[in-house]
What does this fold into?
Amino acid sequence: MIPPILFLFSAFIGLTVGSECPLGWTFNSVTSECYTFSARLFTFDESVQYCNSIGGKSVSISSYSERDALVALTNTTILQPWLGARRNTTTKNFYNLDGSYFYTLMWTTNEPSINGDCVTFKGANPSGLQVTQCYQLQPAFCKQTPALCNSAVLGGPSTWSGTFQSPGYPVQYYNNLDCRYLINSPNNTYITIEFYPFVIEEWYDSVDLYEGNSTSYADHIGSVSSYDWVRGYESDGNVMNVRFKTNYAITDKGWLATWTAKKDMPVISQYGMNGTMVSPNYPNNYDPHDEQVYQISVAYGMQVNLTIDDFRTENRFDYLNIYNSSSQSNSTLVATLSGASVAPYNFISPKSYMSMKFVSDGSLQYKGWHAVWTIC
It folds into this structure.
């Protein structure tokens, strides 16, 4: 029978228990990994099997920050736990079982010695890796990566908007993250996304956006920056991939992202001396989630005389914006029309061009509006 551990581990220093890890595991906010010790002693090979059996793997140190976290975990223990590392008996070099880089500068004093081919971790000063005979009985030391955010799939064929956020927001995100958020919107739509608030460690932590399910440079839409006032981006198609990466040091409150699907509706443009413009499907009900832009241009020196003679939309939520320019912005906005008491409405453009933008939400739809225009 394998004897039970004859000592108690000290409290997990610097760790907080959260829902990030399964029951019995403890989350470390520096490494963004879950850790647990075995309640029994094992040989090296048995410790590897034990960690695999509980859904983890033997701890292989992947960074100096992780080494420091392990020191905090083990600096008052009597027995040193196994690490997922051993010596290649042919080359005599040590390697990590998980394939990560083996840091040869992490050995404790007078190590590596010839006193074995397996590795334990010494937390007490001087801390570091120590060679141990593989048949010795030591605690198993296991870790697993929690599902903080990776493989998050958002939206769907009938979802038009949503929000998501960095892990830990609005308190603090974690180090060593590589999060992917794949947004899917309905067919024949594109995705707009805005980040606010947005507070990260600039230059070292990053949020990048990509077309489709990609992270390649050719599909790169843009990078969000704490220093850039522009926090809004859009895709060409109905799939966008958002990647959030953090390094090993310094975190902040993080970010909140709001995304919206918009129909791919080409601009309707008219020229000449007169014309008619209507909402989509008029006189039948317009569709939900419409966002249609209209532009009118006449000869230089002339003006556009627009008259809306029929108008019915869902009050406040479905509306028609009138602009005194061919572009649409708050500075060129003349009026926002909505509800059932609009018509008749008349507008004369100050110059030889104007534009309109019709927007509907996902709830009630009505017949919309009808407008005629002439030159004056």
User: Anything to note?
Assistant: The first helix runs from residue 44 to 53. The longest strand covers residues 189-199. The chain has three domains: 26-144, 152-263, 268-375.
